[in-house]
User: Fold these one by one.
Assistant:
Number 1:
Amino acid sequence: MPRHWLFKTEPDAFSIDDLQRVGREEWSGVRSFQARNIMREMKLGDLGFFYHSSIQPPGIVGVCEVVAEAHPDSTQFDRKSEYWDPSSGRANPKWWCVDVGFVRKLPRMIPLDELRTIPALAYMPLLRRGQRLSVQPVTPQEWALILALVASEKSG
DNA sequence: GCCAACGTTGGC
DNA sequence: GCCAACGTTGGC
């Protein structure tokens, strides 16, 4: 039974269309211990919502899949990367990440505002005031409820 | 090991 | 561009 997750990204940097184009992507650059620990829990085949942040409107735009379990984030060792972390070493890497693969776009974006109107989703970290986790767990109930919002709509 | 200052996130 | 929230850092 796969577990479910949510991946936030700024579409200017990496969007669902980008993921569709490249097929899979190392989810590198996450520099939060909490988010790192969440990624370490992910298993091959787990599904995730793909969420666009820092645009108007923000919302869930697609579904992705964990295609590689947590491994050291390559950007932490790359001096030329903005995510280079001189305090981390290959013998004991500080930052870990999964790879995500494209599954599908939703028939339409589900805006954050719409998610807020559903009481059963009120405990999602995404909707909690001040919660800024870039990678989050999603319960099976939340997963089913959100997909049901667009289930009857035509795929686009 | 406390806690104030700082930096980042991300909706608005 | 603003600013609330909150994780991290660093002085002590």
Number 2:
Amino acid sequence: MVRVRFAPSPTGHLHIGGARAALFNWLFARHNKGAFILRIEDTDRTRSTEEYINSIIEGMKWLNLDWDEGPYKQTDRFDIYRSYADKLLKEGKAYYCYCSPEELEQGRKEALAQGKQPKYDGRCRNLKAPVSGVTPAVRFRMPQEGETVVNDLIRGKIVFENAHLDDLIIMRSDGTPTYNFTVVVDDVDMNITHVIRGDDHLNNTPKQIHVYDALGYKVPLFAHLPMILGPDKTRLSKRHGATSVMAYKETGYLPEALVNYLVRLGWSYGDQEVFSRDELIKYFSFENVGKSSAVFNPEKFLWLNSHYIINSPAEKLAELVIPFLLKEKIVNEGQALDKGWLSKAVNTQKERSKTLIELAHSLRYYISEDVEYNEKAKVKFLNEKTLPYLIELKDRLASIPDFSASEIEKVFISIIEKHGIKLGNIAQPVRVAMTGKTESPGIFEVLEIIGKEKTMKRLEKAIKTIIK
RNA sequence: GGUCCCAUCGUCUAGAGGCCUAGGACAUGGCCCUCUCAAGGCUAAAACACGGGUUCGAAUCCCGUUGGGACUACCA
């Protein structure tokens, strides 16, 4: 049975890179009908916060990446790490290190300055007696000869020389365990079969393999995913702008779009660009995961988002857009909104909205009492030449009983035929009268959605504006 | 510096030695559709980093060079 995990560290919100690692793990688990486990790696107590844990969980839920076990927290498991560390200590596979962080840092700086590998010199490796007055850290005794092979599911065979491997600190002097140790203990303890993570962990892998060996456990399979880069081709980070998943939620992106965008960063299935969840689960495989890192491209993501908006049912979008209508002050708290009407309105705007925020703004002239004219639009279309048509249209529309797009169209057609003009000659002035702008959905449906009463008011206002 | 990874249009990618005159997608330009704006359709421009091999034949395999990235913590 396949068991995989996503193991974020709660030192920040769920970001794009983490979300993709979570997604690939989730996909692999679902494809293989295995288990997906969420584990919070919060051993760094100075940087981890409860707030970030909640934020990560919120992000996972928004993306609809459900987990079968957890969230486990490593801070709840300190006893377990302690006992494993004691076991290694007892067997001589780990040792106490009395060096102070300051002297270690000093040594590292010197090595770097001399162009040497900054590696622990092993001075505490064979200490016979404890150094009094110092609480030691625990170091793992790394083998210094031979090679370690990582058979990566994505990259193939990678060979590391053990001589380059450093003796890891597995327990800090304050008694808390460190990442390279807890990750192994937990993956063993949770029966993880496949470790799927960012390729920034590739260099840690041989060290972790030795920890598995020392503990006497079978090494899981590894799959190291290529990194996601910013436009400057360095690792995606805060300086590249919005990188947290929730920031995209707040700016009006759909989770399906993010998932689809993220999965195509590094994974492909022939020429297909758009995938349903089921297709993703069905098709996902490491064989189609690329090896090279990918630059995050906001334009393509935006395109996918608009694609998903266009293809979402209007009812669903209407529901989703309400928070944005409120936030953008297009609708007031407590203001009544007919859902059926809103869906109709959304339906006319969804193909010209790339985000839910854009969709919310596009709804403004449907919802508001009044419109403001764009100055250029007003000058061009609300003038003496168009006045007679506006008057005639107003009179004719006033008398139709069924204020529907098809009936409205009949009125327009009859007027243009009578005067031998083009539809544009009348549609554009009306458009400006209704929306204040020169662009909008089809004019007949715009009128229908605005409704007879407001349409009359706005035509009246346009006429007055011209006469005045 | 050391270790490891990577290398096809600006970007995401297809490509498993002949199907490649290198395909798709985003973005960009043009055309069509059209009441405007979109959406959609068609179309154009745009890439195998370089150098050596191997082979009848290389984007594809090997080596080197160059370039980029990650790691190098009592962070994860």
